[in-house]
Amino acid sequence: MRRPRAPRPVGAVSASLARRRAGREPRVVVRTEHGELRTLAPEDPAAERLLEVAEGLISAAQRPSDV
After folding, report:
1. What is the CA 2 to chain-centroid distance, rounded?
2. Could you please report the per-residue DSSP string of the chain?
3. What is the reported pTM?
4. Which residues contact 26 (CB under 8 A, 6 or more apart)?
5. Distance of alpha carbon 49 from its chain centroid, rounded?
6. Residues of the chain with pLDDT under 70
7. Are 50 and 28 in contact (CB under 8 A)?
8. 17: number of CA atoms within 13 Å, CB side?
9. Which residues is 56 bridged to in the sheet?
10. pLDDT tens for residues 35-46?
11. Phi-psi map region of 11: left, alpha, beta (phi>0 left; psi -120 to 50 alpha)
12. Is the distance from CB of 28 to CB of 41 less than 8 angstroms?
């Protein structure tokens, strides 16, 4: 006799969970020379570098000032 498994999210619930998960991931959005927004792929080297720089700026802003 097989044990019943927990139900899996399906359809709209599954899609909603995927959107929520994707919404928490960092992403890089840049403007083209025509002013249009473009999201860089996470594996793009430019996106990786920009995320590193952004993390550094955020860390610097969160440190207490010596002034």
Report:
1. 39
2. -PPPPPPPP-HHHHHHHHHHHHHHS--EEEE-TTS-EEEEPTT-HHHHHHHHHHHHHHHHHHSPP--
3. 0.57
4. 51, 54
5. 15
6. 1, 6-9, 67
7. yes
8. 6
9. none
10. 999 999 989 999
11. left
12. no
